[in-house]
Amino acid sequence: METQTPSFSIIVPVYNRPAEVKDLCESLLQQADKDFELIIVEDGSTVVCKDIVDEAIAGGLRASYFYKENEGRSIARNYGIERSHGRWLIFVDSDCVIPPQYIATLSKELKNSSLDCFGGPDGAHHSFSDTQKAINYSMTSFMTTGGIRGGKVQLEKFVPRTFNMGFTREVYGRVGGFREMFSEDIDMSTRIRQAGFSIGLILAAYVWHKRRVDLRKFFRQVYVFGMSRITLALLYPGSLKAVHLLPACFVVGVVACILLAICVSPLWLLPPAVYFLAVFIGALISTHSLRISLIAVPAAAIQLGGYGIGFIKAFVTKILLRRGRDIEEEINIRKGKNERL
């Protein structure tokens, strides 16, 4: 039995994802640097992954498995934090596969770093389906304002996401845990920055992220992202930036072009056609696959359209009509009085 305290604790909330956990554990068994522990928190699943984790432990993986009633992924992460031991708390999604050099890269990059919190990029593994690869392209492409918001180290307001994010135990001690809300990682990153901690991007610490397996689920995901951006704007006045408006502008623009094409001239369909052609060409250059590039076109439309529709709906109901939100709750959350912490 290992007794040395690990440098890194990888904390993963799980809900009915045994196949994904198997791939995750197998990738962690291949890590070149073993200075980490895995904390799996089964959040009330009906299809559990305990046998898979036990098998990985038998194969040499330093891991712990916990089962709790279903309360949401943020509470599951906080539950895992309280049962972890590492100085660095690392968060990945259950649908991530971790490259063999990931822990070694973090150890090297953070050793002489002043960072208190980091985030890393995600990409598509060669074994993923064409739809997953197309969605990944859409989520990480400049053509859709996706991914890690530009992927440049010098970005002043880089926001880590929980598919690949970490912070020190000192950060947790001062800021507290995740709130049970949509876009909880953006909320967490904002609170970390407001507390005066340093945040940075480590480009070399990437993960392979399966994301959604079909376009219908992808639409639902980005639709919720769009709605949650308004919630974040209510919690943090001034946080809404021009880039957040682009998907809504896309929706309005496409609808306007379609109406003008019907009422005035079919030539009004040219602007969206040129844009989607650019998406296709960009995907073809990036993926070298005709099929993936073809799927990337509707994936980009869904990403921008789903986010934009969710954003517009939440803006109208919560800001213009002031409905569908509890103002007192928003204020309490902003003050850090949410009882879930």
Q: What does this protein structure show overall?
A:
This protein is 50% helix and 12% strand. It contains 12 helices and 10 strands. The strands form 2 sheets. It has a 7-stranded mixed sheet with strand order 3-2-1-4-8-6-9, sandwiched between helices. Strands 5-10-7 form a 3-stranded mixed sheet. α2 links the parallel β2 and β3. α5 packs across α11, α8 packs parallel to α11 and α10 crosses α11. It is globular.
Number of strands: 10
> Which radius of gyration do the C-alpha atoms yield?
21 Å
Going across the biggest sheet, name each strand in turn: 3-2-1-4-8-6-9
Poorly predicted parts: 148-156, 333-341
What is the ordering of alpha helices and beta strands? EHEHEHEEHEEHEHHEEHHHHH
The helix count comes to: 12
Structural class call reads alpha/beta
Largest sheet: 7 strands, mixed
What is the overall shape?
globular
Q: What oligomeric state is this?
A: single chain
**Roughly how much helix do the residues carry, as a percent range?**
40-55%
Secondary structure topology:
Layout: E1 8-14, H1 18-29, E2 36-43, H2 50-58, E3 63-68, H3 73-82, E4 88-91, E5 96-97, H4 102-111, E6 117-119, E7 122-123, H5 130-140, E8 165-168, H6 169-175, H7 184-194, E9 199-201, E10 207-209, H8 215-235, H9 242-263, H10 270-287, H11 290-320, H12 327-334
Parallel strand pairs: 1-2, 1-4, 2-3, 6-9, 7-10
Antiparallel strand pairs: 4-8, 5-10, 6-8
Helix pairs in contact: 1-2, 5-11, 8-11, 9-11, 10-11
